[in-house]
Fold these 2 entries.
Entry 1:
Amino acid sequence: MSATAVAPEEVRLEEPQPENIRKVSIIISKGSLEGIYPGLILANGARMEGIEADLFFTFFGMDAITKKKMDKIRVATVGNPALGVPALLGVLPGMSAFVTKRMAKQMEQLDIPPIPEFIQLIADSGAKLYACKASVDMFGLKQEDFVDTLEGILTVGEFYEQAAGGQIIFT
Amino acid sequence: MTTMLLANKDLDVDAEGFLQDPAQWDESVAEAIARQVGIEPLTERHWAVVRFMRDRFLATGTAPSIRTLGKESGVPIKELYQVFPKGPAKLAAKIGGIPKPKGCI
C-alpha cells in the first residue's frame, strides 16, 4: 500500500490576516458632553494611528461645531442613571453645570482638551468635518454658524459617497 | 520581548519595534528607525519633536499627549501631521527610543 497521503495541515491554505482599518467615518448625533466626546476621541485616535478620519455631525451633535454652542456643552444629568445622582436631584437648577465643571476638571488632568480646542486639534490633524444637510435645514442654520474648519454640508447620499472604502461608526 | 539588530547594536524591542530601554538609544539608532518607518532624512523639525518626546518621557515617565506635542514641542499640530503622516506621537516615540505611548489622546 502506498502511503502518499498528505497531512491535512500541509495542504491548508494560509489563513487570511485581518486587514488594518485605513479609514473611519464617525457620526456624532448627540449634543451632550458624554454624547460628543467619544466620537472626538475616536477621530483623534484614528489620526494618531495614521488612519484617515471624517466626522459627520447630525442633529444635536452639530452643537459641537456650532460657534455659539460649542463652549456650552453639558453633561446630561436627567435620564442618565450612570451618574449615580438620584433622578429628582438631576433636575435641580445648576446640577448639570456642576457635574460638567467637575468632569471638565478631570478631563483637563488627563490632557483631554475642551470641545472647541478639540475640534480645532482634530481639524488640524487632517480629519474632515461635515454637517448633516437635513439637520442644518431643520435647525435653520447656515455655513457661517459653524466653525471655519467645517469642510461642508452633506446630504446622506454624499456622506455615504465620502465614507466609501472605510468603516462607519455611529455615536 | 525580542532583540533587533540595528545601527550595529542589539536593541531590546517590543513586537512593534519600540525600544524597551531608552538607554540603548543614540542618534544613529534614531536614524535607522526613521528609515525603517519611511522617514528619510530626519529634518530639524523631526528632531525637535523626537527630542521633546524623549526628554519629556525621561523626565516624567510618561509620553506627552498629541495636545501637549502641538502646544509645547515647537511644531504645531498641522505640521506634526505633515512631517509624521502616519502618526506623530507614535512615530516620534519610536524614533526617540521610548516605549509606545499608552494614552488615548
Entry 2:
Amino acid sequence: MSDREREWSTRIAQAGAGLVAVGALLLTFDVTAQEQRAFGWYALVPGVLALLAAGVLRGAADAAGVKAPPIVEPPQGKVATWLAIAFGAGLLVQALIPLRYYFGSDPYDERFAWRMFSNVRVYRCDLGAFETRSGYERPVSLMQTIHVGWGSLLRRNRPAVMDAYLEWRCEQEGVTAARLLNRCVSPAGEAVPDVVRRIDCADGALDDGEER
Amino acid sequence: MSALSRTLYVPVAAVRPYLALKCTLILLAFDVWIARLYKGHGHGAGGFNVAHFGLLDAVQPSISAPLYVGVIVLTGALCLTIAIASRPPRALIVLAFLLHTWSWAMSMLDSYQHHYLLSIVLLALAFFPRLTAEEALLPPSAPVKRDAPGDEGKRKRRKKKQAEKKKEAPEGSALLRPFPLVSAGGYAFLAASVAVVYAYTALSKTDPEWLAGAALKSVLHLQENGMPAPGRDDPISFFRELAASFGLAGETFWWFMGHSVVGVQLVCALGYLLAPFRDVTTALWMHALGWLALFTALSFHLGAEYMGLEIGWFSYYMIGYALIFFLPGRWLVIAARALVPLLGASLGPEVIAARILAGLVLLAAGFGAELPVVGWLGVAILALTPIRLIAKAAWTREAASRETQTHHVALGAAGIGAAVLVAGGYIADMPGAPAAAIAGAVLLGAGVVYLLVAKGQARAIHGYGVGAAIAGLALIASMALSETRWDFYRNYGGNHRRLGEWAIAYHAYQKAVRYAPDDDAADSRQRRVDEMRANIERDGPRRP
C-alpha cells in the first residue's frame, strides 16, 4: 500500500511541478510585457495544489514506516476523534473568516483577512468631519475631539468606528446631526468613490452612501 | 492508523514543538512590553472606544490606558513565567491566549493583524505536547508515561531501567546522538494556520495594483516613478541593483516585484502545509521544498525588515517559525542541546564548549551588528553556563537533603518570585502595572496552593517561582533599556493636551521628562510641562 502511495505521490508531484513551471513561464511573459493576462495563475495554483496533495500522500506513507516510537504517543479513541474535529473546525473557521471580506460588500474593513499592505491600506485619504449645531453645519477639528489613532481609522473608512464616532457625537450637548466625508485616491492615483456617513441625532438613524 | 491520523499526528522532532512553544512565549513577553505597551497611551482618551467585536463593547469595563497597560504587563509576565516553568499546564497557556486576545480586541486602536495571528498561535500552543527540556532534547528512551503523584515505586523502577539503558547506550558525540520524536497534533495545526495566513496574503497580492508594483511603491513611500523623493534613502537599493544585474529595470522591475511577492507567499504556504512531514519523509523533493521554503521565508521577512516596513515584531516571529519548521531536526537539536541548560543530565564537555562558543558568537554578532538583544542573549548564555555547572554540582551533592526540604525551597522560590514581580510592577512606573503585578503574584499564590494541596507537587513550584522572579526582572530591564516609558508618557501627555485635559497632560509630561532620552530637546520638553502648569493655573484641571 505504501509503495503504491509513494508511486502515486511521485506522479502527482511531477505533474504539479510541470504545472508550476508552465505557470511561472506564462507569468514571466506577463512581467516582461507588463500585461495582466493572468493565464499563468491558472496553471501555477493547480500546480501548487498538486504538490500539496503529493506531499501529504507521501508524508502519510512515510510516517507509517517510522520505526522509532514517539516519546509522546498520539491520542487514541474518542479523544483523537474529538481533537481531529476541533483542529479541522479551527482550520475551517480560519479559512472562512477572510472570505467575509472577499464576498462582503465592504472593501475597507480588511481586519482578519490577511491583507497586510494591501492596495486599499495605502489609499491616500482626506477626511472631513462636520456637525450641526443650532441648525448650522460646521467642520470639526478631529485632533481636538478624538485621539489621533481614531482619526487614522476613520480615514481608513472603518464602518464600526465611523458609526460609533457619529453616535458618540450625538451624545454631545447641542449636536443635532453629524457627518463624515472621506475622499480617497488609490496608489495608482485614481479617485475612488467618496465615503459618506451621516447621523440624524433626533432618531439616531445612520445612512451611508458613496457619492461622487 | 488511518491516513488522517498519520497526517495529523505525524511524528516530528520533539525539539520543534518545544522550541516553538518556548520561543513564542519569550518573544511575546518582550514584544508586548517593548513594542506594544507604549501604544496604550491612546486607549480611552476622550472617553471614546470601539472594540473589535460588538459583544466585547457590551461586556468589557470602560477602556483606559491603565487597564490596557495592566493587561499587557500581566500577559508578558504570564508568558515569561510559563516559558521558564518546566511543563506548564495547558490552562495557563489558554489564560495567556485569553489575556493576549483581549489586549488587542479591546480596542480597534490595535489593528495589527499579527496580534490576531499570535492569538491563533497561542491557541495552537495549548494543544502542544507538554515536554521538559530533557524530554525534548536528550536521546530517546521510552515513551513518556505520566506517573500519578503517589507512584514512587513505579518511578524508581523506571529511573533504574533508564539508568541501565543509558549505560548500554552507544558512545558517540553527545551533540549528535539521535533525537526523540513526538506526535503533536497542535504542531500540525499551527503549521496549517500559518499556511492559511500566507495563502490569503498571496490572494490579496493578486490585486492588479499590487501585481503592477504600484501598491508596493506606495508602501515603500516611493514616488510614482519608483524612485525615492529627493533627499530620502532608497529602501530597496539592494534589490534594485540585484535585479538590474539580471536585466530587470524600470517598470519591469516593479512588475517583477509585484508578481514575485505572490510566488513567495505561495511557496511559504506550501512549505508550512508540508512542514510536519519534515522529519519522516524520505522524498528528496520534499526536503528540497523545505529548504526552498526556508530560504523564501527568510528572504521575505529579512527583506521586509531591511525595507523598514512597519510591522512590529511580526518578522521576528516568522523568521523564528521558518527556522523551527523548516531546518532539519538534527540541526535544531544540536543547536538546542548547545544552548538550553538541561537539568540533572550531562551531554559531555563538548556541549559546554558548544554553549560557550554559541554565547561568544551571539555576543560578537549581536553587538557587532547592532542587535543588542542578540548580544545580551550571548552574555546570558555565557553567564548561565558556569552558574548551571555550579548548580548541578550542588544538586548532586545535596540531593538527599534537598528531598526533605523541597517544600520549604519551593515556597521560598514562589515567595521570592511574587515579591520580585510586584517590585517590578512598581519600578516599571506605568499606570496599571502595579495592579497587574499584584494580580500576577496572586495568580502565582493560587497556583502554589493548588499544586501543594490538590497535586502534592512541591518541586513543580520552583519553575513558577523562578519564572515570576525572572519576569519581574525582565520587566524592569525592558522598561530601563527601551524607550517605552518615554514614548508612552509623551504621547499620553500629547493626547490629553489636545483634548484639553491639562492636569493629566501635566503629570504625563513630567514623567516624560524623567524618562526622556539624553538629547538636545530637554528645554522644549520642560516648556511643555510649564505650559500645562500655566493652563491649570488659568483654567483648572481641564479646558473650560
